[in-house]
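Case study.
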Amino acid sequence: MKSVSRSPFLITMLAFGFAFLYLPILLLILYSFNESRLVTVWGGFSVKWYAELFQDAQILGAAKISLTVAAITATLATALGTLAGLVLVRFGRFRGRTLFSGMITAPLVMPEVVTGLSILLLFVALEQLIGWPAGRGVTTITIAHVTFTMAYVAIIVQSRLTQLDGSMEEAAMDLGARPAKAFLLVTLPIIAPALVSGWLLAFTLSLDDLVIASFAAGPDSTTLPMVVFSSVRLGVSPKINALATLLVLGATIIIIGAAWFMHRQDRDRDRAVARAMAEQKDRE
Amino acid sequence: MSESSLPAAHQQRSLQQKRIVPPNPEPVIVIDGVTKRFGDFTAVDDVSLTIDRGELFSLLGGSGCGKTTLLRMLAGFETPTKGRILIDGQDMTDVPPYARPVNMMFQSYALFPHMTVEQNIAFGLKQDGMARDAIRARVAEMLDMVELSALGPRKPHQLSGGQRQRVALARALAKRPKVLLLDEPLGALDKKLRERTQLELVNLQCQLGITFVVVTHDQEEAMTMSDRVAIMNQGRILQVDSPHAMYEFPGTRFVAEFFGSINAFEGTIAEDGLTHAVISCPDLDAPVYVNHSVPGYEGSTVWAALRPEKITLSKQPPADPARNVARGVVEDIVYLGGDSTYLVRLESGRRIRVALQNLTRAAEPEVTWDDAVWVSWRPENVVVLTS
Ligand SMILES: Nc1ncnc2c1ncn2[C@@H]1O[C@H](COP(=O)(O)OP(=O)(O)OP(=O)(O)O)[C@@H](O)[C@H]1O
Ligand SMILES: [Mg+2]
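After joint prediction, the assembly is written out as follows.
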C-alpha cells in the first residue's frame, strides 16, 4: 500500500493537480496586493485596492444584496428541501411518488437559462394577474434561487434519511415521545450535519449564481456576480482581485472554524470520559 | 452479576428454581386472536396467548416466522389486522406506542448517537416530566445496575458491542415499565458474552420482577432463560410450555426437532393398551415397546421419537434384544468436550444420533468409528407423536 501510494509518478500527479486547482487562486491573491493597475505587471506591495474596494459603493451594495439573498435562500431551501426529502423517504409508496421525486430533482439537470427564463415569465404573468411581485428585485431573486437550490437540499436530506435506522425514532416514541417530538429530538439532530451541508451548498450556489439572477433581478438589485461579470468586461480591476481574496479568506475562516469546533467537542468529551474513569478507579 | 467458575447454564438452572412464582398467576398480557397481514402475506396468523406477571416469556422460532412482528404489535408499532391485545387489563387497540406501559429493547439497540449514555437513559424519564434530581438519581441507579457507572459521559460509538447492549437495556428499564420487550437482545454478542449476559438478564428480571418478553431464534437461549417458551412457525404458535415440558413432552415433530434434536421413526401402532403400547417401525429391527398409553388407535400412523441422550450404545447385545433395540455401525463421532454425538447407521439405512457423556479421560473411546454396535432405550423414554 505504502510503496504504491508513494511512487514518484503519483506524487507528481498530485502536485500538478493541486497546482491546477490552487495556483490561479494564489496568483489572484498575490495580484490583489499589487501596486500597479496592470494585472500582469508586478509594481510592488500595496493594500490600496482594498481601500478602494471599501469605498466602492456599487460593489459593497451588491455584496450586501448577494449575502442577504444567499442567507434567506439557504434558510428557505433547507426548510423546504428537508420537507421534500422527508416526504420522499417516509411516505412510502403513494400515488404519483415517481412524478413527485422526478419533479424535485428536475431543476438539477435543467439548463439554467431555461430555469431563469421560465421564472421570469412566471413573475411577469403573476404581476399582470395579481400585481405581485411588483417589479423585480431581491424578492424575485430569492424566490428563483430557492426553487433551484431546494432540489440539492432535498437530495442530500433524502440520502441521509435513507441511511438512518428507522428504529431510532421508534425508540424515542417507545420511551414516551410523541411523533413530532421524536422527530425534533432524535431525527433532526442526527441529520443536522446534512442540513448544515445543505444550507452551505444552497448559500454557495446562490452567492455564485449569475444566470438565473440576471433573469430575476431588477435595475436596483444587482448581485455581486453580476457586478464582477460586468466590470470584468470593461477590463479587470485589481479591486476585483481584492474582493475575491476576501471571499477566499472568508471561506477559509469558516472551514477552519468548523473543524476547530468539532475537534474541541471531541476533546471535551474524551476528557469527560477520562475524568469519569479516574473517579471510578478512586472509588474501587 | 459477577463472573464465576461455574458454567453459566448450571447457575441459571439453579436461579430458575429460586424464582418465586406467584401462587395465582395473573395475566399481564392477553393476545386475543391476533392476525397481521402485509398485503397478501400473513406474518402473524391468529395468535392467542397470555403472559403472566413477572414471567420471563420467550418467543422462539426460525427466521421470518413473525416474532418481531408480534413484538412490534405489543409495542404499538404495528396494528393488528384482526384481534386485540390487552396489557394490564386495558385494550391497546387505540393506544399509541408512546402511551403504552411497555418498553422495548431493539434488535439494533437504536441508541441515540448524538446523546451520551446518560442522556440516552434519561430520555424516557424526561418525556415523563420527571424532576431533574429524580432523573439524575435514576440514571445513576440504572448505570450502576448495568455496571457502566464510569461510561456515563460517553457517546454510543465509543462503546463496545456488549456495553451498548447494556445501555439499551438500562434505557428500556429506566421507566420501570410493566413489561419489557426484548428483540433478540443477545443476537449481536459473541458466545462467551452471550452466556454471561443471559445469566445477568435472568438475574435482573428476578430482582426487578418485571415481565420480560424475549424474542430469540436460539433454542438454547430460550431453554436456559425462560419460565415459558412459545414456539412459532409461519406466523402460528405451535406450543407454549415450560422449557422442561417442551423438551420432554413435545407435541409435534416440528417442536421436538426445533427444541433440541430428536430421532423420529415413523411406524404404526401394533398393540394399544391402557398402560403400554407396541409400535412397529419399519426402520427399526425390533418393535418399540412403550410403558404408557399413546394417542391413536391400533393401525394408526405415529412417530416414535427418541432424544439422543436417552439412547445407550454398546458393543454387547442389551439384556432384552427382542424390543427397543437396533443394530448399526458407527459412522461418525462428533466430539464436543463434555459429551460426544455418535452417528450410527442402522441396518435399514437410517441414521440415529446418540449422545454420550465423556465420563473418563481415556485416550481411545470404548466405541469408535466403524464399530458394530447395539443401540437401545428404555420404554419410558419414547415420545410418541401423531404429527
Ligand atoms: N413492513 C412489512 N411489510 C411487508 N412484509 C413484512 C413487513 N414486516 C415484516 N414482514 C414480513 O413478515 C414476516 C415476518 O417478519 P418478522 O420480522 O416478524 O420475522 P422474525 O420472526 O422476526 O424473523 P427474524 O428472526 O429474521 O428477525 C417476514 O416474512 C417479513 O418479510
Ligand atoms: Mg426479528
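Observations recorded in class. Confidence is low (pLDDT under 50) at residues 1-18 of chain B. Chain B touches chain A through 33 residues (CB under 8 Å). We will return to this complex in the next lecture.
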